Amino acid sequence: MIADAHLALGGGARAVRRALSLTTLSLAALGRHRQRLRRGEISASFQQRAAQMSQLAREICDAHGLLVEVDQPQLLAGLGGTVIVSNHLSYLDPLALVASVPGAIIAKQEVASWPLIGDVGRALGVLFVRRDDPISGARALRQAARALEEGANVINFPEGTTSDGSTVLPFRRGLFGIALRCDRPLLPLRLDLDPPEAAWVGNSYFLPHYLRLATRPVVRCLVRVGRPIAPRGFSGARSLARAARAQLLDLAHRGRAEAILRA
Length: 263
Fold this sequence. Notes:
This protein is an alpha/beta fold. It has helices at 2-38, 46-63, 92-100, 117-123, 134-149, 174-182, 206-214, 237-262; strands at residues 66-70, 83-86, 104-108, 127-129, 154-156, 186-194, 219-225. It has one domain (2-262): Glycerol-3-phosphate (1)-acyltransferase (3-Layer(aba) Sandwich). Helix 1 packs parallel to helix 4 (117-123), helix 5 runs parallel beside helix 6 and helix 6 crosses helix 8. The longest helix is centred in the N-terminal third of the chain and has 37 residues, at 2-38. 38% of the residues are buried.
């Protein structure tokens, strides 16, 4: 009983330390970015902002014990001008992906209102979109097209919401149309979290879930890299989305088979 109490206290203290660390890192990053902009050291290019965001994501992952493992990291090295599509499990996903490969992230508008995180995201090139607002969606797609034309990657979660990872939800097709129009390749990436309870789904509130997760010494995120998909040869956004989703389903099946073999 006493040992359990000590563990609980230790986990709670770790959660508080990590929450404070996140606040400190976000404030420092925003301050650094604003200072560099004022000094003219950083342009507004998506590539430069994506590189900064990638550095910040790595710092936050380290501070929170989020260990990101990429099964084929050589396929992500030097990647540019690519539409990256992934399944969506948690608020950890954007951090894990952009820490692995720089890119402009498409995120839901609600995140823009989160203290500090929204400010840092806007400064570092996150493309916020209100999912059911056609005007907001069109604006985000225009920005994504510009990022791709500049040679930056664009990172998207086309399911539009999180799931527990047992399947891949139907895809929204907007960004696949941009890939076709700009003739930019797609790269599917499959995410899996260990423990699976790290997934943030349903009506779970952010803060209690975050504090529970922060008590864990380590959370692992495995990134499985799919095969690049050239948009030429596809009749439209629907068929391109189907091909990307099929790859993510295949990567999920392979991941489960590997887990069974390891057990």
